[in-house]
Amino acid sequence: MSARDAVVQLHDLDLLIEELRTARPAGRQRSAVPDAVRLPAVQRARTQLIRQLERRWFSAYERARQRYGRGVTAVRDRVCQGCFITLPTAAAPAGDTLMVCESCGRILYWI
Amino acid sequence: MSTTIGPALHTSLLILELGLRKRESALLEMARRAHLRGAVREPELLHSLLVLSERIGGAVVGKGVAVADARSLTVVEPHVVVARSRRGIDWDAPDGEAVRLVLLVLSPPEIPPATHQQSIARATVLVRSARTRQKLLEAGDADEVESLLRELSP
To answer: The complex's ipTM?
Structure first.
């Protein structure tokens, strides 16, 4: 798995963790498996994923997540959707290469 | 952005006959369909998340229906993908029934968790009635399924 795919998956797992942590009354649990049981399983998957990720990318991800709540942000028309700065023309996605917004530090996901 | 099931539906997001027996393959086919419609960027990445979510009991399953969901960076806009399977998909349902109707609720990360949960709840309520399920399974074409879902949407 490329670093880029791993970061996207990490981001999505964090969204799922956030969802499972949103308290819901027991009667309104949507799946047959309670959220309290699902949460540790997702956290285990997260740990395994982090092991596959280079330390520098995980650090960049965590730094941005701690600061803004999300470690990855989309880039639309060369604009970082996290801080809305226009990225330099040289900053173009090249295959599976990861990039960090020089302004806000979030990892960029080009769409 | 609307959270009702209605506006997120489109005939191109309806798979009238999913000729697959395994849930992983069914989910991949649904993710690919959403990609063709432009609702999803990277179907394989979305599929990995769906598979993980299923392994830990993510979907609401029962009475031949499964409501799966994902909130992901790969999703462009809220959408519901609907698929039918006459042969049935093996989903490890608690009631042992094969799944003949699948609703996949997709939301981008910007959608708050509570709103996403609300969309799942709406989809689940929609297919709770045996009569509705029967109507959806017997509908002749995609337009009929779509209009039924729109008509029934809260």
So the answer is: 0.84
